[in-house]
Design goal:
The protein has 242 residues and is an all-alpha fold. It has helices spanning 10-23, 28-31, 35-39, 42-57, 62-83, 96-118, 125-144, 149-156, 158-172, 176-197, 201-216, 226-241.
């Protein structure tokens, strides 16, 4: 997949990375080694960018968007650390290193709860708990059953995007039904990006059609960043045609 212009400036994403490192500073020397392989993953780059977009589209502050992008990046980081743990069938040895990996992943999840308090967004606690639960259930599905790639992406990666948009809607004061609809926009954008990255172009295009159809029904009063959202869809569509 070509490099997509997700919208947020490099300055904003660099700030997210600074906040991310600072929040994990007590254990950064031990954690830094996990970063290089993840940095090559599209999800690691796209999730923070889409979170910032989700908040920007609703006219929420840049500062809040950056803080929330850090939270979602942190959850993704912890999830990927846990994914690195194999099982007995894969020859995973029960070593001190394994124990550390499990504990450090749990520690990072705990940091997210603290970040919610530090950013005065504790009203999102139930939502974040539901998201983490959904992602963990999705990983069980991924490794313990035979599913299509689209189904696996829907339960392991799409929740990051849908809950990013739902959290923005809740902080904006949307009614529950409207928040669910905005979350669906995040789901469709996330599915399109993940499937495009995996080379499933037709399926990715289908999700873009759904995202655009919803945006066509919105106005600039409800969604101040509607034009920018349309721009992102067009950017992804251009990548599909390359």
């Amino acid at each position: 997949m070509e490099q997509i212009d997700f919208g947020p400036t490099q300055t904003e994403l660099a700030t997210v990375n600074e906040v991310f490192i600072d929040a994990l500073k007590p254990w950064w020397d031990e954690l830094e080694g996990y970063i290089p392989p993840m940095a090559e993953e599209m999800s690691y780059r796209a999730i923070p960018a889409l979170v910032i977009n989700a908040y920007h589209y609703l006219g929420l502050s840049r500062e809040l968007g950056i803080k929330m992008a850090n939270m979602f990046k942190t959850i993704y980081f912890a999830t990927r650390i846990h994914e690195m743990i194999g099982d007995d069938e894969e020859g995973q040895e029960h070593t001190q290193e394994l124990q550390f990996t499990i504990l450090i992943g749990d520690y990072i999840f705990g940091r997210v709860l603290k970040l919610l308090l530090e950013t005065n967004t504790e009203q999102l606690l139930d939502m974040f708990a539901a998201m983490i639960c959904a992602i963990n259930e999705g990983l069980i599905v991924k490794y313990k059953s035979v599913r299509s790639l689209e189904e696996i992406v829907a339960v392991t990666r799409a929740p990051f995007y849908s809950y990013a948009f739902r959290s923005a809607a809740q902080l904006k004061g949307f009614e529950a039904e409207d928040g669910e609809a905005y979350g669906k926009l995040g789901h469709n954008l996330g599915m399109a990006l993940e499937l495009l990255d995996a080379g499933h172009l037709n399926e990715a295009a289908d999700y873009l059609v759904k995202a655009r159809a919803w945006l066509d029904g919105q106005n600039d009063q409800v969604l101040p960043g509607r034009v920018d959202a349309m721009g992102l869809i067009q950017e992804i569509q251009r990548d599909l045609r390359r």
